[in-house]
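Final report, Chapter 2: Outcomes

The project's central promise was a pipeline that accepts a single protein chain and returns its three-dimensional structure in a standardized token representation, suitable for archiving and comparison. That pipeline is now operational. To close this chapter, we reproduce one record exactly as it appears in the project archive, with the input sequence first and the structure output second.
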Amino acid sequence: MSDPPPPYEEITTGQNNSGSSNRGQRVHVATAGPVVPEARLMPLDFNIYSGSATGDVYYMGPHQKDRQFALTLRPNSLAAAPNPSIILHDGLNTRDPAIGTSRNAWVSGSDRRFDEFIITVSPLGGSQPAEERLVTVDEGTYWHPLIRLRYSLSAAQAMAAAHGADDTSRQQFEWQQSSSREVQSLGGKDSGWRLVNLSNVDETLAICVPNGHSFTKFLRFSFRGKGRTGSHYSPTWEAMAILTGLTTWERMKELND
């Protein structure tokens, strides 16, 4: 979409309250040699930690003592609608502006399915904003169902500026259940989710794995392959990957509770 996502009414805008005014900016370093890769908006590897007794405030960072972003996670996406059930804040305070949000798209009286979410990402580091639907794709059989969550982005939103992409094409991405060695290497549960570009499903772009061995660390997330380089995909793509991964994790928790 060409227009920025509407602001969430409870989130302030502008300078965040955590003193991290350079978040969301990509740093370009002028050199006479090869181009230096741009600084990433998001960490390459991080965990999700609980931050409150009520269970709706979480933190994102490589370690519990190295928190980088606050998260508001409301456990029932249907009850939270039409407000977001997930808010990724640009700072360590839940009053900091939103990098992006996720909300359940179901409306009472409509024929929309429950497993459809609207993900919004604010303009980041000079890249385009985005508002896209994350939808469930049911595959497999009754006895062995395969649940996948899929979304798409225009090439201009998904690709780093150096690729010169435009809005004429769209790229589809999908979170797939997996128990591969790559997923298990994160050290959480044996089964998790891998993010792929449907144009090349053999390459994993990100992994998220629930952590069943801790009362404070709930999820492990890692960018992989081209998703890790910082020069192939845009800041919008990075934030969208994280928000759709968090939505997938939260939805699976809802179904299993």
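Archive annotation: The helical segments are 77-80, 155-158, 181-184, 226-229, 235-256.
This record, like all others produced under the grant, will remain available to the consortium after the project formally closes.
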